[in-house]
Amino acid sequence: MLELPPLSLYIHYPWCVKKCPYCDFNSHEGEDRDGYISALLADLDNDLSYVQGRSIHSIFIGGGTPSLMTEQDLSQLFNGLKSRLIFDDNIEITLETNPGTFEIEKFKAFKEIGINRLSVGVQSFNDKYLKSLGRIHNAQEAGKACTQAAKIFDNFNIDLMYGLQGQSTNECLADLNQAIKLNPTHISFYQLTIEPNTLFAKFPPILPQEDNIYTMGEQGVKLLEQHGYTRYEVSAFGKKASKHNINYWEFGDYLGIGAGAHGKITLAKDGSMIRTLKSKAPKEYIQNRKKTTELIENPAFEFMLNALRLKQGFDKSLFSNRTGKSLSSIHDKLNKAKDLELLKQRGSKLIPTQKGFNFLNDLQALFL
Known about the structure:
- The protein is of the alpha/beta class and 368 residues long.
- It contains 16 helices and 17 strands.
- The mean pLDDT is 95.
């Protein structure tokens, strides 16, 4: 039986100081940002009918670089959110930030405004690789930002990349050890991939051999787990898992506001599910905030696409609760995944095997 899942909110802030060559997110250098906060709140007003009386489970403010917002803009935003939405008592509110000095000076203000989780986009603690990635901070600033985050926030994340041009396994592990010493509650550890329509796609760097990248990932996972970071998703390791991340992977609902923001909503009236997409260009978004909606026609596949990313798998009842469909509707596909040793059943849970996790695309494709 379908149940309305937890409801989260994603807020997109599309500006950054400098566009990184690997970044395929909707982010832009410069441009006029006047009116953006008012546009976000007007956008939310247009989506309030989707809330259907539910409280907000988590908020994630991503970008771009949302920590570039002024304290005044953040205050206006949060006052507007609180006047329109019901926040859970234990709501998780994450803000993405970069390690630049300008942002570090605002960490206390972020906490006072209501942000209780910081995600610091370090990517590397090695100046050589920061330069090759087009980052505008250096290793010293990265360490300082994380040290300051640890003093102010009980819950913070460090983003790290591996498989960088010229990177050795020892250098990758040195980055991880540095992050671990800073004692974040969460580490996102993910491989650099060359995405279409990026500068790296046009001028690709020479990356390490695939076998070397695999070794970096394998040894990195072992090191993180040895230090108490549980791998709960493909690239997410936490002493404390992100509530917002978990809601995504468990096929929860989320409003998406901001330029190019996506949302996914279950409608109480009939249990149907829709996706929303907002105008991508910031200037156009500020002026008209066009929204497109589409019906999710295969919720079973979309559920599996997300839930199979979870290292500990999912309870079988969650499938029915989130999709409104019986697990028997994908019985043959589940059996094939088990026969191929990509999926296993343990009690009431379905869990990707290590082979399934290593060949996740193949596992997900079985449910198309």
